[in-house]
Amino acid sequence: MKKVLIPMALILIPFSLLIWQRFNLGPRTDAVVLASTSPRYLSGTHLRRGETVETNANEFVAIGLAEATIGLSERTSLELHRLYDDVRIVNLSRGRIIVNNPTEQPIYINTLKTQNTVTLARATFINFDFLQTVHLIPLSGSFQTILKDTNEALLVPTPIAVHEVDPPTYSLITFDVSKNSAQSFYTWFDKQLISP
Q: Which residue of 46, 63, 84, 89 lies most exposed, with the fewest beta carbons within 10 A?
C-alpha cells in the first residue's frame, strides 16, 4: 500500500499546486462601466476578465480600471484579457480607444502585431483591421511599443502607423483631434473624466 501512496502523492501534489497557481493569480482590478451611450452597458456595470466589450454605431463606453480609464468609440471591439493589480492587458481587435493612465502601473494594449505599454500617459489607438493597420497616437506623454514578430521596441512620442503584416512595418503620421472625424468621441470622453 505504501508503494502506491508515495508515488501517487508525488504526482498529485505538484498537479494540485499547478492548478492552484492557475486560478489564484492575485488581486483583481475592478473593471466598471463609468459612462455609456450604449443600452448594453449601463453605468456601474462590472465587467469580467475575458469579457469582450463591443460598441455599435453611435455608441461610446468609458471603462474604469482602478485610477485609469479606457474609452471605446463606435464600432470597437476590446477584450479585457487580464485584469489584475499588477497586470492589466486588453486586446484591441478593431476600432478606436483612448487610454488615460495617470499611474505608474502599466496598461498593456495589444493588437495583432503590437504590444503597447501605457504608463503616466494618455494615448489613442485606432485599429483599422480591414486595412491591417493600427495607428498608435500619444496625446500626452509617450508610451512603449513592441513589434511582436521582430521584438523591436519603440518609444512612441509622436504618432505612428503600424502595418500589421509579416514582418510589421511602421511610419510617422500626423494626428489632430480637432480635425479628426471622431472629435465627438474625444469630447465625450473628456467630459466623462471631469464629471462628478
A: 46
Cell of 84: 489584475
> CA quadruple 139, 107, 192, 195: dihedral positive or negative?
negative
Task: Tell me what percent of the residues of the chain surpass a pLDDT of 70.
Answer: 88
**Rounded Cα distance, 18 and 6, in Å:** 19
Each residue of 63-103: pLDDT tens digit? 999 899 999 999 999 999 999 878 899 999 999 999 999 99
Topology of the domain comprising 31-194: Jelly Rolls (2.60.120)
Nearest to 31 by CA among 51, 52, 47: 47
Q: Which three cell numbers stand for residue 50?
A: 475575458
Cα(96)–Cα(72) distance, rounded to whole angstroms? 6
In the chain, domain spans: 31-194
Q: Is the pLDDT of residue 21 over 90?
A: no
